């Protein structure tokens, strides 16, 4: 009796050489055990894709696990308070992502019965979801044939096809989208989508790419021309603006610190932070105006330098001890008295959290 032999199904002929080699590589070397892959749902994939925007996988994993443990479904996220959502996002940065996801969850519950829509147009209409993110959700969650073009994929395709020019330019971006569409197969869409992202994240890295491990190296135009380190073309350099912020660590008789919610727009939008002292203002006048009491002592702490994507910020902290009790106007939900060493129940940015922990 002839023994049974396991046969590997052949890929359809419409899968081009790039996709075929990439899928074969993914089966052996791709990432198959990321937290959002273990029990993949449209919601978990959505959360992961938003968190992974401009953030590396290793950084995202613990945030993702905490986030979905507290908000396991769209409805849980939609009904949660904004401060709690931001508190679970605090430290991950780019806080507009959390605000947009919270707003989108409310829309999904109200208009789609708590289920993410399955069309590009409807997904892209939700806050915080662009073309590539929508495509990734549809490909990974629903197996739809949608081309993606995140930062990793831009780098892979720019090198494979030797596309010169900064990918932020419309012409270059248009060419990259055309290549992304042409390589996307009609089968194994979820695997291919994960594979092309994995290739960029683990092999075709920004610096020192591991070309010897790349499954498509033989036809990579950048490798053949020795241009791996030059492509994709970097964004034209511009002088980084330098900004300065004076913040007040106001402490009352119970050693609590006063926090104030920041506006939704601008840096750390919607998070709680330390009150900011405007240019030309005085700490004593600020306390008289807002708290109705004077200052018994002040101490300047060492400045903290913090880098954003487009500028550098120097934070200059000033510790103030109040003479008397602050007036009750501070009881509004825009202000919060916080005791260092206690758990924060609202979101604060990383440098502010560092300052607060130093007081405890």
Task: Describe this protein with a few key phrases.
single chain, 360 residues, alpha+beta, Endonuclease III, domain 1, Nucleoside Triphosphate Pyrophosphohydrolase, five-stranded mixed β-sheet, three-stranded antiparallel β-sheet, 15 helices, elongated, disordered N terminus
Provide a short characterization of the protein structure:
The chain has 360 residues and is α+β, with helices and mostly antiparallel strands.
Question: Describe it for me?
Answer:
By secondary structure, the chain is of the alpha+beta class. The protein folds into two domains: 17-225, Endonuclease III, domain 1, CATH 1.10.340.30; 242-359, Nucleoside Triphosphate Pyrophosphohydrolase. It is 42% helix and 12% strand. The chain is built from 15 helices and eight strands. The chain has helices spanning 17-29, 35-38, 42-51, 57-70, 74-79, 82-89, 96-112, 120-124, 131-142, 151-160, 170-183, 189-202, 221-225, 283-291, 350-359; strands at 242-251, 257-261, 272-273, 276-277, 295-300, 304-307, 312-322, 335-338. Strands 1, 4, 5, 6 and 7 form a five-stranded mixed sheet that branches. A hairpin with a 4-residue loop joins strand 6 (304-307) and strand 7 (312-322). Helix 1 (17-29) packs across helix 12 (189-202), helix 9 (131-142) packs across helix 12 and helix 10 (151-160) crosses helix 11. The N and C termini lie far apart (76 Å).
